[in-house]
Amino acid sequence: MLKLLTKQQSTKRLFSTSISVSNLPPSCTTKFHPTKPQATSLQHIHIKGQQPYSLGSKLQEHIAQQCLTYKNHQILKRNPHLSHKLSQLPEPTPLKPLIFSFEFQSVYTGGKREKIQTTLEDISKIEHLKHCHYIQTDRGGQVTYHGPGQLVVYPILDLTMFSKLTSRCYVSQLEKSIIEVLNNNSSFGLNCQTTENTGVWCHHLHQENELRKISSIGVNVRKGITSHGVSINCNTDLKFVNDPQVVMCGLDGYKQTSIKEQLGHDVSLNFVADEFVKQLSGRLGIDQKDITSVELDPEEFEDEKSLLEKLDSLVHYKQ
Amino acid sequence: MFARSLFKTSSSALRSTTTTISRNAFLTCRPATLTLRLQSTLSANQLNKDATPFKFTSGEEPLVRYTTEHEWVAIHPDGTSFVGITKYAADALGDATYVELPVDLIGETVSQGDTVGSIESVKSASEIYSPLAGEVVAVNDALEENPGLLNEDPMGEGWIVKLTKADGEVEGLLNEEEYVKLLEEHEDE
């Protein structure tokens, strides 16, 4: 369980304490499968280069909003009282499930509860201390760090298009996919697991008694549409996350680690992304042959509009 | 394993408004046991008759409606309405660890479909939408200190937002029967 926080006179804790997480129900063991044709194939887009967090937000929101428009249309259709309104609206385009992967420039981000719990004073202190920005987001979870060497993956999909996939089960599938990649891929062979705290934890240097966090999770769900997702420490500079003055994920007293720290050498973020996509898709009942993977370099587009158009062309489902 | 033990319990247990069906059993029931499941779905997703949203107007029952996104609304004769999420939704989310209450909307008018907060469980924040248009008069502060109340009594003391002069499109909302039918269709997928 969590260590008790000892009062340290010289250090001021800058973020909220965690609440103790009581026994969670067992993680879902059902096999999932797509219930709609548009969910039977998946697009993976890896964005090349170290990008500002704002680009990640923009791209995922662009896709999520289209999913929501489509969803709202479906909701009207399903509602016996309102389906007469449909004739007034244009038929929106269905989207395939999409997984974005990114590498961001250094940033701290806060989940929804940090809107109240982290003050402006706290934010300017952290920005001053670590020389990088703090950004408020709409995902679950508390404070986390993104930066060079860390893989960030955002699956944007409609949970209701997969049989009985609740948000709780979805988070569990994310964790299981990460564990499968880190433990059972011959390139890594780590010893990772889940605990009562969300995320993926690694037995540090295969020791039984010390767990360090290697992957964090924070998801937003709107009418079944997911956004945000997971981060996996590949070659992350751990000084941003193991500083006692900054509490990550509301868990004081726990350290983070990275694949690099465990293996002693750098790993390829692209490789980890591809393996994760394969795992998650498999768990959602999507065949490997139905996964399309591309790498997009924002530098190669003359403006944001053309990048977004390219995204749309990849994600729109053609019947 | 859980499904089998569920159907050994007496039928009187299933008829009570607050059922004790385990989460896993509820979500993994086999089609052969549809009737029993229907009964339990119906009673599990009704308002708790001993709690505030139901008892608000003494001597009169509120009108209860549902959305396809698993919110419920209890509309009282004076226009005061309580909004929450159904037992089905609370179970699907898992244990709530944090409820984002729309305190900044108190005194403001919301439209039908506007976001009125979110519920976090296992680091997943799920947004809640207002079933009706109206003015937000209160949020359920009890959820701030005790998010677990949402799972304990989602159709009673775990209400989320209170609206007044609530109006509009009650016709767009589902009645109890229609909501249960929707859940059935969900389960059959």
TrEMBL record, chain A:
It holds the Pfam family LplA-B_cat. The keyword Transferase applies. GO terms for biological process: protein lipoylation. SUPFAM superfamilies: Class II aaRS and biotin synthetases (SSF55681). Residues 93-288 form the BPL/LPL catalytic domain. One of its GO terms (molecular function) is lipoyl(octanoyl) transferase activity. Signal peptide: none annotated. Its EC number is 2.3.1.181. Keywords: Acyltransferase, Transferase. Pathway: Protein modification; protein lipoylation via endogenous pathway; protein N(6)-(lipoyl)lysine from octanoyl-[acyl-carrier-protein]: step 1/2. PROSITE patterns: BPL_LPL_CATALYTIC, LIPB. The keyword Acyltransferase applies. NCBIfam families: lipB. Belongs to the LipB family. This is lipoyl(octanoyl) transferase. It comes from Ambrosiozyma monospora.
TrEMBL record, chain B:
Its cofactor is (R)-lipoate. Coiled coil: none annotated. Pfam families: GCV_H. The H protein shuttles the methylamine group of glycine from the P protein to the T protein. HAMAP family: GcvH. NCBIfam families: gcvH (TIGR00527), PRK01202.1 (NF002270). This is Glycine cleavage system H protein. The lineage of its organism: Eukaryota, Fungi, Dikarya, Ascomycota, Saccharomycotina.
